[in-house]
Amino acid sequence: MLLLLLSSSCCCNLSGDSPPPPSPPPGAGGWSPVVTEQEPWLQVDLKEQMEVTAVATQGRFDSWDWVGGYLLLYSDTGRAWKQYRHEDGSSLWHFRLVGNVNSEAVVQNKLSHPVRTRFLRFVPLDWNPSGWMGLRVEAYGCSYKSYVADFDGRSSLLYRFNQKSMSTVKDVVSLRFKSHQAEGVLLHGEGQRGDYITLELHRGALDLYLNLGEFSSGRVAVTVGSLLDDQQWHSVHIERFNKQVNLTVDSHTQHFHTKGEGHSLEVDYELSFGGIPLPGKPGTFLRKNFHGCVENLYYNGINVIDLAKRRKPQIHSVGNVTFSCSPPQLVACTFLSSSSSFLSLPAPAPAAGGSAAGGFSVRFQFRTWNPDALLLSVQLNPEPRRLELQVNGSVTFQCGSAGQRVNDGLWHSVGLNTRNQQVSLTVDGEPASTIELWEQLESRGSFNFGGCPPADCQNPTPDLQGCVRLVFLNSQPVDLNRVQQGLLGNYNELQFDTCNIRDRCLPNLCEHGGRCSQTWSSFSCDCSGTGYSGATCHNSIYESSCEAYKLIGSSSGFYSIDPDGSGPLGPAQVYCNMTEEKVWTVLAHDVPSPVAVRGSSLHSPHVTRLNYSASAEQLRSVVTGAEQCQQEVVYNCKKSRLFNTKDGSPLTWWLDWEGERRSYWGGFLPGVQQCSCSLEENCVDMNYFCNCDADTDAWANDTGILSYKDHLPVSQIAVGDTNRTGSRAVYHIGPLRCYGDKSLWNAASFYQESSYLYFPTLQAELASDISFYFKTSAPSGVFLENQGLKDFIRVELSSPSVVTFSFDVGNGPAVLTVKSHLPLNDRQWHYVRAERNVKEASLQVDQLPLRLLEAPADGHLRLRLSSQLFVGGTASQQRGFLGCIRTLTVNGVHFDLEERAKMTPGVTSGCPGYCSGSTSLCHNRGRCVEKSNGYVCDCSQSAYGGTTCNQEVSVSFDTESSVTYTFQEPFSVMQNRRSQASSVSAERSSSSRAREDVAFSFVTSQRPAMLLAVSTFSQQYIAVILAKNGSLQIWYHLQTDRSPDVFSPVAANMADGRLHRIRIHRVGKNLYVQVREDVHRKYSLSSEAELISIRSLTLGKRLDEEATLAASRGFVGCLSSVQFNHVAPLKAALTNRGSSLVTVRGPLVQSNCGALAESTSHTLQGVVTAVVFIAVCALAVISRLLYQQRRAQRSAGIKEENRLGMYTDYRTELHLHNSVRENMKEFYI
After folding, report:
1. Mind listing the pLDDT tens digit for each residue in 57-70?
2. Run of H or E including 380
3. On the CB side of 577, how many CA atoms lie within 13 Å of its CA?
4. Closest CA to 816 of 845, 788, 838
5. Residue 970's pLDDT is what?
6. Burial class of 760 by CB neighbour count within 10 A (0 to 12, 13 to 18, 19+)
7. pLDDT given for residue 15 in this prediction
8. Which of 5, 319, 339, 973 has the maximal Cβ count within 10 Å?
9. How far apart are CA 830 and CA 748, in angstroms?
10. Separation between Cα atoms, residue 508 and residue 91, nearest integer Å
11. 890 in helix, strand or coil?
């Protein structure tokens, strides 16, 4: 949106000289500009189109004059210029070419892609500080011949076939084009059966519509490229074979499959190039014809332009098609700086016939990515009034607005007219936004575009970073060439004859479907809804396995796991069964119930395909990473055989994950057509290897477990023997169940400094994440290293308490360090995670603060490695690591250290010590700590206590009791706000980083009740309460300007004196709630926002501003094992009574929630029995006395009921009191 504003603040011009034309070269010594020239450049005319592959520079002969770095611009007309950039495999390039360090040495720069041009322009960036600029240049390349056609927007070329239609299985189309318009059809053809192909320029990008043999109302385009309306040449290449298509625009390629059922493209009569000549043609849609130049247009090897130029009969020309490219009429300038760019133009005389009306008019076109920018500033009479035109700005007085989103990188036209005592604003030809004024506006001084001189204008809105063209003042065009030559107006930080805008979202460097947005100087990724987080959506927000969830204290329930982490597979939903010693991952399919079969035969079998809750690739990743997998198969039969045939061919079979047929049944070895009863020798008829193969009239059963991992899971089952009289079968395929995570404890021990493990080169050009655990007693050592010609990446323990992550992608070495206040060579496991992407690098060690380093703007992007990856050492066999490394993962790929260690001297598989096995010695987030003669469990991060962190920590509350755990004091929050800008938690509001884990148990008979509340300094909060009816409610208030999200996972009364376990897990917008073992809910929040600056967590009664009825009532009952992320507040209240972080009000009674619940349950059962017995007796008495004593008995019944109620309440309270006294210790804090 554009905003038109009037302001009373001042705006004036700052004079400055514009650069004169470049001076001629001073003889044979080389080119050197006059010292007084500003922004000089050297232009070279190659006299004809050339394909330039390299340029070389040298300083001025026998002098102290040379150029240290320069920009290279090129143009085929000498008017519209494009800046050459080194391609770095993405949309971000380097502008600067390396120059000289003395006057005599020749420095050659090979161009990463050839440039087809006639003119070259060398723009010095820096030079010898002890001398001046000096250049001798040379260009390398060869002549370039091209066939050119110019289309004026109303013309086209038709390539007509020899027959009525042409059907092709393979097509190749190539061309180059340039245009100043964002719309236009380049190629179109269609057939009567529904085939069509259309290539068109739309919103500055290329859309390809391609369909083979399918009539469809909606046409879906494949889009490639961006900003293609820049009057520069762009290459297009289309390859199609059957349904496979490659579309390449410049260096960006899209691979896709066509729509439709056919494999050939059938086009009737002709193909049109440059437009659709007949808009009323059936089946076509109205689009603008192309306006610009096309070069070297080839269709299946046919040079279309050459045929047209030679007037061959196959080509029919419509309209005015010429065969030379007309010079560009639109010359743009680029505003480079958001703080100092401006173009100041004097007000011209009013147009003829306009003086009577007074006022002024301005028209121009602009393009930008920035959401806030100053477009125009004009001083008005009387002083100090001023009119401003902004992009989404906000200043003192708003007069009007027009247009929608205009920071989309496209050209937008703006018209401003202040005549006839009104201001009208028009954007992109839309209806004008008009404001009536009391008096006529008159301009005073200059018109400032894109900014204003700093001496006269203190503008809070950033200056324009973008391009401007077609400037008209009072209907008179402005010649920007005169501005550049210093003959008109004034400017600063501008580039003329070029629009140097670029699309930083092409290609999209946001991974996993992240949405890219950009400004002039940077891009950002929106990861919401992707399941990933980070600057480029690289990191999975989910754990890799159920085993990993258990290690962080989770209990059984449905979870999303990402088996390959930051890899391409994405998350899958599974059920994690943690009730046994083994943690089972369960993946269900869409046929959960038994299936009855009749009427199937070997030639017409009953076939069922199983679709799982994960993709085939995800299933394979889960199976491969597990220690063991299995799937139960059940076959109930009645005269229905499995394998009993004369020729040995099976009657029933199943397909494995690859679609291979398998004919062995559950419980037996692969490849053998037998069942488990054969292996166990208990088949009903020992003459057969399966119970069903006995082929009896009675029901039989063959049940077994498929456990050969390479074949799992079952993807399809076929039953082929139920077509005989009396034949019936019922089968059931259970879910895929796997346990164990082979990568979690995959370890290697390094006991020689010169030893190492080597692996293939890291594939980590644009992004890489490396994570592992280590333990050592050595003071230093390299964990891993990979080198290239100049690039490298390394993670090492540089001192006993410092981990260092260093790398070089061509911008010079970058180093991140994390220093621990305790030694890291303490023979305990420590976690390290290093990540590097095109936006930033980070290093995490244990729970220490994350270190973050932003990548340099417009620096090199690709990490080019060539050597092997060395783990535990270096190629030089120096500074090797001594100790253990386990769970090494790079970009979601788990490295098998144990297998590689078996064949490497100086390295052994596994790691010695009690804490190095897969057996969980410490539970519920407890950390195993090695000792010289054993181990101990560090339960400081766990809500549980005891020697193995499995003992519940429970406390009884009364109406006045509360526990408040303070995360940060207000002064520390204010103090840390500056550092938060560069730390991980501040930082961005990348909401997909938002994550909470809450777990606790409770027993209460009170309702309503406040169980738990978390609040922040920004007025956000989370609350878990029992409502008036005893139902559980979870409140999430993440956006203070909206109402909180409220969820009720259990509607039943939970204030029933029983023990309830609650687990809440939030990742981004997804909220997972588990109540006990049987209730699992998933909800979607209205916001993904993080909890910013968490203030406190409160258990029981709350006294702050967010008090509700539940909060005012507090909590009466028992709370147990309360965990919030890594904090255990209830445990902290009992064990750290003197800590400033914990505030306790009222009495706290250490208790046992489980015992309370059990005693309450027994008491309630006794009460119910007594009530039932007395009620029966009362009914008998009432029946016997009938009407005579109705009133008297009714009164007696009421008295008896009241007495019984009092007795029951007393019994309950007494029983609870006695039970609690037996297992509690009371203290007051």
Report:
1. 999 998 999 999 99
2. strand 373-381
3. 13
4. 845
5. 46
6. exposed
7. 29
8. 5
9. 15
10. 8
11. strand
